[in-house]
Amino acid sequence: MLNDCRVAIRTLLRSPGFTIVALLSLALGIGANTAIFSLLDQALLRSLPVSDPNRLVVFDAPGPDPGWTSSDNNQTVFSVPMYQDLRDRSTVFAGIIARSGAAVSVMNGGETDIASAEIVSGNFFDVLGVRPFLGRFFTPAEDKAPGAAPVVVLAHAYWVRRFGGDRSIVGKTIRVNNHPMTVIGVSAAGFRGVMPGQEAEIFAPIAMKLEISPSWPATGFTDRRVHWLNLFARLAPGMDARRAAAATQPVYHSILEEELVQMKSKSPRFRTEFLGKRLGLLPAAQGINQLGRSWGRPLTVLMALVGLVLLIVCANVANLLIARAAGRRREIAIRIAIGATRWGLMRQLLTESVILSIAGGLLGILVSGWTVALLLKMLPEDSAGSFLGASSFLDGRVLAFNLILSLSAGVLFGLAPALEAGRSAISQNLKDQSGSTTASGGQAGFRRILVIAQVALSLLLLVACGLFSRSLANLMTHNPGFHVENLVTFSVSPQLVGYSPERASGFVKDLLQRVNALPGVTRASAGSMGAFTDSDRSSNVTVEGYTAREEENMNVNRDSIAPGYISTLGIPLLVGREFRDSDTKGAPKVVIVNEAFARYFFQGRNPVGRHMTFGGGDVKLDTEIVGLVRDIQSQNLRGKIPRFAYSPCAQDPDCAGYVHVYARTSRDPESLFPALRAAVSQIDAGVPVRGMETMRVQINDTVYTDRLVAALSLAFGVLATLLAAIGLYGLIAYNVTRRTSEIGIRIALGAERFNVLRLVMREVMVLSIAGTAVGIPIALALSRYVESQLFGLNARDPLVFIAATVALLAVAFAAGYFPARRATKIDPIRALRYE
Q1: Do the beta carbons of residue 116 and residue 290 sit within 8 Å?
Q2: What is the pLDDT, as a whole number, of residue 390?
Q3: What is the pLDDT of residue 330?
Q4: E strand or H helix that includes residue 173
């Protein structure tokens, strides 16, 4: 084997042109696959860095859950009493833990920033099996009395980034939401909580929830209607998830019966559905994988696309090897004649292919590093940070993937030339004294098949490119319902630095006055939820004149806004008025609704002057509808527009806790950034400013997955088409060389140059049309798998298929034209002497 390797390396070095072209092709194909796999591995395949992650499960209980719910993910949340009951009564788990997320302000050394906090039970780290890097973790005792354990643990990455890796931080006090808290430890490197894609920077005990979330209801520790905790468990030894769920269901059902007794009267249907809820245990080796939910499908699509690129690369290299083997037929025949076995010869040729592919894979590691860096630059900062903080991209798993891919590619593209060489006729090849590169009919036929396959695969990639590009164009030109240009947004949270609700309201009012007075600002306002902020809030409503059906969903999305919000964002006001400064806490309650609200509850009739209230049951309709506005996309460009109601900020005590400020300007929006930051600092420099950007950038960030998939599918489509063109060019050029004598005779007998051109181009078009004929049905069949990724576009859009086919045929024509044109210039005299 070592001898085969030495011979293979010497042989490859003797053909530097072939070797360089093959290496570069393989480096691009394998490198692109390695890059996308590294991202896919981070998002979908990697387990939590905890002890035996496969023994972890997360609790799931779909069904009616009356009361107040708050969550930072799509998984079921539970109340504190429910968590305590399950923890204390269940016997099939080694431990049950709870967590929730929140944003906090952290002040240290006079600097304040916003951090992501994980609120966890006292046994959180012990059950997960995570060890501290410094100090210690929480104890169960620090999880009992509300507010009695002002301690925090820093995540390792945050400790390095924010505190410079200072080991003396343990035992020191930092201010979290302006509350002094002692740092008792630093978590192990690489551990970022149990929510991949949402990096935890600070860990705090559940007992400190009120300090972490100032607007949270104080009854949340004891009220079973306040749901906010995700529950995880570690299965006991010898127990599997199915048996554990079956054993826990009776306990869960008994708890539900106790909760139902405490509820107000409910319909028989509700009681049946509530008591019929099943407790499920879902695999949680990857935690609650928000990263996978956001990126799983796009990365899977990209992985399929780069796989097609690699197949085209393999076909190209196989074509090169077959052409090269044709020139080595006499050498191969001599080696067999002097005693080499056909198996030994095939092994030698496969060794060359594998060494070539491994070398290409090593170069591909460099390509993958550059590709990942480029991809991360294309992502919004938050999303890029989710990937960057996870773990090394070039770890053992990714390197193993690269090696396996390289070996597989080497065998794939090297097998056909090796088999062809093993079947070569010795006597015929020994008689070939000229060293002619004339290929056998089998070789020529197989090369044509490879080119047809390349054309078909290239068409698949071009169709994907067209679909994703048109989908992105539809998204980027989609009207969200309000004026996006010249609008700047940022957020502040006075309550996170210790402001009372009254002081926070004063802060926001003062800030809006200062922003409105800035040169270039034409209007400014604020809202608690805002537009395209990835946050929402909903509430049940009771509406005048509308009788709800049993168990009907009466939820509407809602936002609390300051006066001028509607006109600042440019939302069309259809009927009625905006909120005024006089719509204060003591004034009559008012609300503005959108068209979807009016269509649902008033069948499209004018809702202004009618009454409603937030809440259900026997309630007073004390809120007047004073305005009707156009429907807008409030959180993303794809979603269905919900029923929406806007309330005055002054009539909502929680409005000023976290607000999004909007300023419309008559000049360059980005030039306003320094003045806006200064306006906040002039009031209180300790209030951090988050997410200052233009509304156009903020909306663009919501479609970053679409932009990434469109950009990469375009790059892969161009690369694949280029590789297919090279393959076609190589085959036609080779055939022209092989048929030099024939073409010379044709010209000598009077054939017109145009006829020679047509003769060669006919083969080009036959191969190209055959490739598209194979590719179109496959593309139509596979297009349904990307249907959900498209916006405003059918996956079988004829315009895309026609454009991709025409573009591919045009490139194929250009690739074949140059060798065909060279054929027309063959000198008959020289051609007749060619053999």
Answers
A1: no
A2: 47
A3: 60
A4: strand 173-176
Written as one string, the DSSP assignment of 12-25 is: HHT-HHHHHHHHHH
The residue ranges of the chain whose pLDDT is under 70 are: 1, 4, 7, 265-266, 323-345, 378-394, 416-444, 617-618, 654, 656, 831-835
Sign of CA dihedral 756, 761, 767, 770: negative
Tokens describing residue 510: 């003062």
DSSP 514-572: HHHTSTTEEEEEEESS-SSSS---EEEEEETT-PPPTT---EEEEEEE-TTHHHHHT--
Query: What one-character DSSP code corresponds to residue 248?
Result: H
Residue identified by tokens 């796989």 is 307
pLDDT at residue 434 in the model:
44
Instruction: Give the chain's count of helices (H) and strands (E).
Output: 25, 23
Distance of CA 587 to the CA centre of its chain: 46
pLDDT tens digits, 629-686: 999 988 888 878 999 999 999 888 767 678 999 999 988 999 999 999 999 999 988 8
Task: Locate all alpha helices (DSSP H) within 66-155, ordered by sequence.
Answer: 80-89, 124-128
Question: Taking the C-alpha atoms of 243, 244, 246 and 247 in order, what is their torsion angle to the nearest 10 degrees?
Answer: 110
Buried b or exposed e, range 640-652, using 16+ CB within 10 angstroms: ebbbbbbbbbbbb
Q: What is the spatial distance between Cα 628 and Cα 608, in angstroms, rounded to a whole number? A: 7
Q: How far apart are CA 137 and CA 128, in angstroms?
A: 12
Please state whether beta strands 56-60 and 202-205 pair in parallel, antiparallel, or not at all (unpaired): unpaired
SS3 call for 119: strand
Burial of 279 from C-beta contacts in 10 A (0-12 / 13-18 / 19+): buried
Q: What is the pLDDT of residue 275?
A: 86
Look at the chain and count its residues. Answer: 835
Which residues have C-beta within 8 Å of that of residue 625, sequence separation ≥ 6? 576, 590, 591, 592, 593, 607, 608, 609, 610, 611, 612
**pTM as predicted:** 0.80
CB 34 within 8 A of CB 364: yes
Q: Work out the mean pLDDT of the chain and round it to a whole number.
A: 85
Q: Could you write out the DSSP letters of every residue in 475-500?
A: HHH---SS--TTEEEEEE-GGGGT--
d(CA 264, CA 615): 14
User: Concatenated DSSP letters for 756-809?
Assistant: HHHHHHHHHHHHHHHHHHHHHHHHHHHGGGGGGG-SSS-TT-HHHHHHHHHHHH
Residue 123 DSSP SS3: coil
Residue 830 CB contacts under 8 Å (≥ 6 apart), including other chains? 744
Burial 773-787 (b: 16+ CB within 10 A, else e): ebbbeebeeebeebe
CA quadruple 826, 446, 363, 305: dihedral sign: positive
Segment 483-523, tens digit of pLDDT: 999 999 999 988 888 788 888 888 999 999 999 999 999 99
Q: What is the pLDDT of residues 368-424, one digit of tens each?
A: 888 887 777 766 666 655 565 544 566 778 888 888 888 888 888 777 666 665 555
Residues 6+ positions from 485 with CB-CB distance below 8 Å: 695, 696
pLDDT, residue 435, reads 43
Rg of the chain over all Cα atoms, to the nearest angstrom: 34
* Type of residue numbered 514: R
Cβ–Cβ < 8 Å for 291, 386:
yes
Distance CA 486, CA 483 (A): 8
